[in-house]
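User: Show me a protein chain along with its predicted structure.
Assistant: Here is one chain, sequence first, then structure tokens.
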Amino acid sequence: MATYKTPQGGVIIVFSVLFAMLLMLLPLPETLRFVRPEWVIMVLIYWAMALPNRVGVGFAWVVGLLIDVMMGGTLGVLAFAYALVIYLVLGFHLQLRQYPLWQQALSIMSLVLLVHIIAVLISPRTASWHVWLPAVTSTIMWPFVYGTLRKLRRTLKVS
């Protein structure tokens, strides 16, 4: 009789995304609100790289829709942007996983920039140089996010 390993850890993935959503809601002083890292998309990118069969385009779209509602943005903008970014990550997840951490961080920068470019092009807000700052802070924070989620995944045996 063959034993099959069933995937586990769906709750951990959902809770990590919910925690990232909470980080997006934390109030910051007016001077720092433009440099808030994109916690949610970084967590989605990590899980899509680590477990591409568990986190897909549909999950990213639902999370983006929730962020649109939560942040009061134009409905569907972040849903589309998150789904597109995760689609790209899923297409290149094997390569991204092989990159050194600094190169992954630069990839994160380009993906977060893509989210912001889509948001500026679709939503009726004006672009200023502040729009690009979250890509820089997300790049800086990626090694910490990656290390934390990797340790969590390995400790709790999320598969």
